[in-house]
Amino acid sequence: MTVDPARYAGRLDRAARDASPLPQPDAGPDITTAYQVQRALIARRVARGERIVGTKLGFTSRAKMRQMGVADLICGVLTDAMQLPDGGTVELAGLIQPRVEPELAYLLRSGIPAGVSPSGLWGCVAAVAPALEIIDSRYRDFRFALPDVIADNTSASGFVIGPWRPPDMDQRALGVVLEVDGWPVQIGSSGAILGDPARALAAAGRMAAAVGVELAAGSVLLAGAATAAEPLRAGSTVRAVVEAVGTVLLRVGGIAG
Ligand code: OOG
Ligand code: MG
Predict the structure, then answer these.
(1) In angstroms, rounded to a whole number, what is the distance separating the alpha carbons of residues 240 and 257?
(2) Among 138, 153, 154, which residue has the most ligand 1 atoms within 8 Å of its CB, making it the best to mutate?
(3) CA atoms within 13 A on the CB side of 46
(4) Mutation probe of ligand 1 site: the residue of 137, 141, 146, 155 with most atoms within 8 A of C-beta
């Protein structure tokens, strides 16, 4: 199937705005075309006044690959309209099938050069914070092949960042807990992120160069979920706790049912 990136982006954009999912494409785009669709999708948001504030990686942990049935790193774009304040409330109306996952966020001091040395890597990072990502596939039932989810801006929908702090702790094996209403529902380790989140930073440098995404100074990088994602439920409170890094909180609007 030949895919017209602008038309495909228009369909994905409308699906998100109408909160009405698309059926799985019979034969989606190839990976290169999928990133063109993603760029066209972001261009529509920018044309509406949204500002690009960061980049996200997806499928950096086995837990996520297993949950979604795919096995390759992907990257997407974050805009200011997707960000919620720490402790803020997300409304479910307007979303299709939102899920939440615990992440580490990095504040970039500079771009990450492709092939940067491990010691040079941390020089590109100003701060680290606990984060929650809200994902919401525009494909029915969260079912897609890899190019489809790339086109859909890697299911990006929202994100919350906790307090920033200097990235001076050893980040290879920090406990990560996703809590809903005080109960731990997913437990993992920062080591689940490619064995060491530093590898996610290096991968972001490589991927950004390969797919033409800019890792700007002052922008945010979400390194990818350390655990599987959980459905967002009305009236609940979600918290991510990352050992030695901190906690971040999200409230879900509506009444628990
Ligand atoms: C794609 C997004 C993956 C992550 O952290 O691995 C992602 C999806 O699960 O629909 O954001
Ligand atoms: Mg994620």
Answers:
(1) 22
(2) 154
(3) 11
(4) 155
Ligand 1 pocket member 137 (CB < 6 A): yes
Tell me which DSSP letter residue 206 carries. Answer: H
Nearest alpha carbon, ligand 1 atom 7: 58
Which ligand gives the minimal distance to the CA of 226? 1
| pTM, 2 dp | 0.97
Q: Is the CB of 102 under 6 A from ligand 1?
A: no
Who surrounds ion ligand 2 at CB < 5 A? 133, 225
pLDDT tens, per residue, the chain with 257 residues: 578 999 999 999 999 999 999 998 877 899 999 999 999 999 999 999 999 999 999 999 999 999 999 889 999 999 999 999 999 999 999 999 999 999 999 999 999 998 898 889 999 999 999 999 999 999 999 999 999 999 999 999 999 999 999 999 999 999 999 999 999 999 999 999 999 999 999 999 999 989 888 899 999 999 999 999 999 999 999 999 999 999 999 999 988 87
**How many angstroms separate the Cα of 13 from the Cα of each of 25, 37, 153, 212?**
15, 11, 10, 21
| Sole residue written with tokens 């005080």 | 182
Q: How far is CA 154 from the centre of its chain?
A: 7
